[in-house]
Amino acid sequence: MLSQRLFMIGLLLAIALSSSAYAAPSITFNSPQAGYLWDDFKINVTTNTSASCTYSINQTLGGALVIQGSLGTGTSHQASVSYSALPRAKNLTIYVSCDAGGTAKASRQILSDLKCQDAIGTDWTLGHDLACNSTAAPVLTFSGAYSLDCAGHSITGSRSTGYIIFNESTPSGYSVENCAISNAGVVFWATQTTASYTMQNNVIDNINAALQITNDAPGGTASSILFQNNTITNAEFGLIISGLCGSTIRDNTFTDLTEGAVRIKSDDATLLDCQSDRNLIQDNTFQGISSSAIHLWFTSYAEIIDNVISLSGDAKGILISAGDAESVGTAGHTISGNTIEGGSSSLYLYYFGGSGNANSNITGLNLTGNIFNSALNAVYSSTRLINPVITKNQFLNAGMESLFSGIGPLELSFNGEGNYWGHDDCSFLGSAMIPGADSNSTDIVDSYAYLTPEFRPRCYFNASISIISPQAIVYHNHTLLVNLSSSNANSVWFHNGSATEPYTTPAYRTFKEGKTTITAYANDTYGDVNQTSVSFTIDTQPPEISDPYPSGEAYTTSEFITISVETDEDAECRFSDLDLPYDEMENNFSSHGDEHSEAYPVSVGNSYVIYVRCVDEYGFNNTESAVISFNVTDVPPDGGGDIGAAPPVASTDPVETRVWSQIEANQVQTVRISRGDFALTELEFVLLNPAGPSRIDVTKLSTLPADVSRINEGVIYDYFSVTATGIKISDIQGMATLRFRVSRSWLIGNNIDASTVTLMHYEDGQWTKLGAVFFSSDDNYSYYESTTPGFSYFAVVGRRMPEQNQLQEDQGSVGLGSDSESPQPRTPEVEEEKTMPGVQLDIPDEGSNLPLIIGSAIVIAVVLAGAGMFAYNKYFAKKGTTEKVSGYGFDPDQVMGLPPNAEASASAPSQGSPPPHPQDTMRNAISECEEHINKKDLAKAIQSYSKALAIYNEDHSKGAYNEAVYAILSSLHARMAELSQEKR
User: Fold this and answer.
1) Which of 965, 887, 886 is nearest to 921 (CA)?
2) pTM above the 0.85 mark?
3) Among 545, 565, 540, which residue's Cα sits nearest to residue 619?
4) Contact criterion met (CB below 8 Å) for 217 and 240
5) H helices of 792-937, where?
6) Tens-place pLDDT, residues 76-105
7) Which of 400, 598, 710, 757 is the most exposed place for a label (fewest CB within 10 A)?
8) Whole-number Cα distances in Å, 23 to 96, 851, 852
């Protein structure tokens, strides 16, 4: 009989597929996550079937084994790993191998991050904050010339226990950058070393000292550092260094230091070849310094340039110490362009040792272009200056004092250029400047007081000038009011951007489109001129778009063509296939300025209309679009190519298109279909790798191409195609999601079972059923979702509901390929039939797709076997009565109304065992489905649900029995939908 053959075919297929499903398990790696680890952790994986799993951890990919162990047997596997067993600051790979008759492997890369008191034995980027406030010093140790990049993470130590990073006495430098370091004794400390160090972009707070280097190795070459872009706050010392040569200390900020910011010294110059010389201290900012900002102790040839120093109390700005009887003097310092405010002395020169000793001299000091404004002394000197160059400095509100006697007067002028000596007020105006009169020491002489305008006090500028309007904003009109304000002015004028004109009262002026700068001037009776400027912009028009390209016929042999426009000003432009406002256009031209071009994906034989709008740098954008319109052909414009060849004719089928100028990786991309005559409503995908210019075309097909085979099953609702240009299918993460809808009037009019609606995909010359998940409906449509591994042709297909309730008993069997006549259907009792939803739920793909594919095949096989069983055992069908079951709990035996095999046993033949009763199969399938849902095993729940559904949909009798089963299956379907959403 046909039913027997169906049963045997389905049963054999189910057994074959079930046995192959467990040949190779799929592995889901739950933890640890890829990336940094810095504590004990667990390796946790799950398998889709029972398997025996082991793990190993190796250095780098395929490197030496570090540790290995077992993950146990079953479907859930885990093992604890001690972080202390792993090498620090290393790239590691965790390998997992699981065997269930076949072997599957998985791996995950991790980085073992630094912990407190680790040794840094490689270049490393820190992955987390280090809190080591209860850890003994040092927090970290460099074991060689490596780099540490904190990547903005913090390192916190214990100020009471000392060092953060300690280099011992190894002669190797290191690099530390991008760290936030706090609560330490000395942050960086190295001793007895001749290495070079780099410390930059660090923020250091609440410390004793940021850096301490001690190097007194006899005959050694001293260390050097690059200390750059660091911020040091709330400290005693900034840098304390002995034996530092050829170093750079630049662009740092020192704030609220109590003992000293930068101190460079040589305790015994005879021990070091360079004598702590030739160091550059430039462009640093010192604030709230209460001791000394820069202290050079027995060193030479330093350059102290363009620093800004703010002192408090009795602090000194720059200290230079000459040596004692056992040391040489200092020589060759250049101090230029610095500004020093507050404290007792801007520059403090003094000696150690007996007076008159040559080792106490400061030779060749170059002091040029500084502004010294200290409360007591601009310069204090207790030692002899030999051949100094002191010119063009401003000594404000204080003079120079020399307490070293017996050496004669000191001439400050050099080559006829002196210095400016400031006054507290302008009372001296009108009288001659007396050279050196403001020095409070008679042996200081400045023969050529420097009085050029840039060094005069502000009181010389009696005339003031300001611009009330225009202001530094964007105006959207050309005519503006010029309004100036001045005081003590002899005359006022301004330059309007193109010409100079006098000013008396406010007046309107017309300015050109674009940016304009006007400058206002005022002079006083002394002839001194004061000035001020303002820049503003006139913008009354959006960018004008011209030269759209291409136009008409566009020739290409590739998948892309360059589109372009020009604008009459610098602008940013966007484009879209729809005429949208600028802010809603989804694609950007990557090139800016006044020429804009972009690669655009095309297909030969198609026509394209592209809308373009631009915005200028002041925010003015187009309210109407420029249009790029062209047809794509592969026939060269000069008539080349095959004679008589015609370009492909564009399809008249409706097309929806989405274009991207660039697609980012790991971001959901959605193509929404706006046309109402498409079955497809949305397409979603995520790329593993970024893509350049890309497009997707969705075409509603009136017919399939001649070379595509037809579907010979079910009823076709819609054909459509999806074409991707510039997107690699292999780059799509997992599956692409397709959402589509089916008209409810079509379902009713064609007697279509809504649960049978599915999506089919044409690939490799054949149609494959993808399945579909029903997720909602309204008055007009039922909505479904499916996933696809690729793009091409698709079909939405449904199956008509059966028109008979059971086979004619007296027609005999009809074998496959039999010549017997088909059985004649009976007329069933008329009653509304309830159709259960299908089983194509969205199961998250957490590993290999093989188990899901096999599982789906098993479901199909079980359904086929179940259909055969029911047809074979139709004589045992029982339509008992019971109450409807609602909610999620139920009693299968109570619902079925019969004990296991009760009626089957009563009706069984005298010999042989009866086949399973359909109600027994239904009962068992429902119980299994309930159990799998409780265990959150969605794949197995679907298999059990499908068994029950197959029996229900084949049994078209009515009554309380089917009503009760319908309620149970509905509740199970709802729970599986919730579980599917939860897993997603």
Assistant:
1) 965
2) no
3) 540
4) no
5) 850-872, 892-896, 902-906, 918-934
6) 999 999 988 888 888 899 999 999 988 999
7) 710
8) 17, 10, 13
